[in-house]
Amino acid sequence: MGQRKDIDGSASVPTFYGKELRWKREEAGLTLTQLVEGSFYGPSHLSEIERGERRMPAELAEHVDKVLGTDGFFRRCCEDVRKAKRRGHASYFERVLEAEKHAETIEEWCPTLIPGLLQTDAYARAVVRSAHPLAPDDEVEEKVSARMARARLFEGDHRTPEYWAILPESLLRQPILPPVQAAEQLERIAALAKGRRIVPQILPWNRAPHPLMLGTAMIMTFPDAPPLVYTEAQYSGDTLDDPALVKQYRKAYDRLRAAALPPEASLARIEQAAEDDRNGKQRD
């Protein structure tokens, strides 16, 4: 059995409470399995909470307080942890922040912007500033940093979700950034595709009416939980778990994928657009 890795409780609010949870559990002489017995959660879920990787649901916190006799400590701390984990993000995005880390597949469509998981810091900054034109610089940078932290989902050697993004061709011509920064944004997408981290598809600008024309969709599946769909407007978002609605979005996304270019042709079009930006070439 390998040596257990210690938890740095100073790293963040979630790791602080995770370390406290492990200390209280071990002080009581309980294993992970023994502590979750009688709840609807498994030991692996609790282990991720102890490492600060997952928030503690309120009902599990109440169970832990009861078993450990901690007088409501962990239930009271739930909201602190939730706020810390979503810092830089809107409250309605909280469920997505956790879900995407544990997803088996993520399929995304956004008709007006490059999805957040694929954005460079320059692109994210431009988008945040457009939505909050009067916000202080430090508030903007907090939101940008939070978005860049999400993008680390595709870094390292750990298991990543199978991520599929359908991008309207208009995004390749979108004048959000100066040419060099625009090229860097497209090159990031191309690099992730060539590194077998994501699969992008381009929906040509002259396609006939197609599914999901009226809004965004982020469809997530999990190895041990029902699928979710997240949709978003300018200042609001909604996470859907109703099976009938999820099924409708699933079918619509499949039809949208069929209308898009194949992955190889899509990658070639992204790389050509990046090269045009690098060379300062005007694109139609």
Number of DSSP helical runs: 11
Mean pLDDT: 86
Q: Tally of extended strands?
A: 6
Give the C-alpha Rg.
Answer: 21 Å
Strand order of the largest sheet: 3-2-1-4-5-6
Structural class: alpha/beta
Q: Termini, distance in Å?
A: 61 Å
Percent helix: 40-55%
Oligomer: single chain
H/E element order: HHHHHHEHHEHEEEEHH
For the largest beta-sheet, the strand count, sense and barrel status come to:
6 strands, mixed
Q: What fraction strand?
A: 5-15%
Which overall shape is indicated by the principal axes computed on the Cα atoms?
elongated
Weakly predicted, low-confidence segments: none
What does this molecule look like?
The protein is α/β, with parallel strands linked by helices. It is 48% helix and 11% strand. The chain contains 11 helices and 6 strands. The chain has helices spanning 13-27, 32-36, 43-50, 58-68, 73-85, 94-102, 121-131, 137-151, 179-194, 243-259, 263-278; strands spanning 105-109, 162-168, 198-203, 217-221, 228-232, 237-240. Strand 5 (228-232) and strand 6 (237-240) form a beta hairpin. Helix 1 (13-27) packs antiparallel against helix 5, helix 7 crosses helix 8 (137-151) and helix 9 packs antiparallel against helix 11. It is elongated, with a radius of gyration of 21 Å. The model has no long low-confidence stretch (mean pLDDT 86).
SSE blueprint:
Layout: H1 13-27, H2 32-36, H3 43-50, H4 58-68, H5 73-85, H6 94-102, E1 105-109, H7 121-131, H8 137-151, E2 162-168, H9 179-194, E3 198-203, E4 217-221, E5 228-232, E6 237-240, H10 243-259, H11 263-278
Parallel strand pairs: 1-2, 2-3
Antiparallel strand pairs: 1-4, 4-5, 5-6
Helix pairs in contact: 1-5, 4-5, 7-8, 9-11
